[in-house]
């Protein structure tokens, strides 16, 4: 448990430090990537990125949160309080993981690479997708451990796609996306530990109750 807490604190510290370092001026990697992708958002790459951004964005944690709450209610009514409790706790972690972009964007007040609404750091889209992925991995860890590796792989791929789409669209710096992943992982580790989801003790879940 101490390891999860320490890792979470260090990741959040890294997120805050990165924000402080890159907010006054773009980092060299930020500047290079902006130059490389300059104008791509106006063509076909931008059209593709816009579709990806619409799918892999803020809608995902909302959909997952609603699904988890509905599932928890069904399991509770059927007497499966263990599974319902896990679903509710995962929902809490999901909500807390989503907070960094809402809380820290106005704090860092970082400008976007091009004229665009709202602040840049951290990327709200990447925070949303990474939060969803973190919650799904937690859910699998408790109720379907054989799917954890696949869940991690899909979550990483989805987060990378979201980040790439925002970069191609020219609405985020590279470090905005990196900061988003640092924040979500750090908050997720602390939140999951606080609500008792880490470390996972799957034998607390009655056999066969989680998937019925």
TrEMBL record:
Residue ranges crossing the lipid bilayer per the database entry: 48-74, 86-104, 124-144, 151-174, 180-201
Span of domain Phosphatidic acid phosphatase type 2/haloperoxidase: 91-192
Keyword terms, alphabetized: Membrane, Transmembrane, Transmembrane helix
Record bears the keyword Chaperone: no
Identification of the protein by name: Undecaprenyl-diphosphatase
Keyword hit for Transmembrane helix: yes
UniProt organism field: Prauserella shujinwangii
Origin: domain of life: Bacteria
Pfam families linked: PAP2
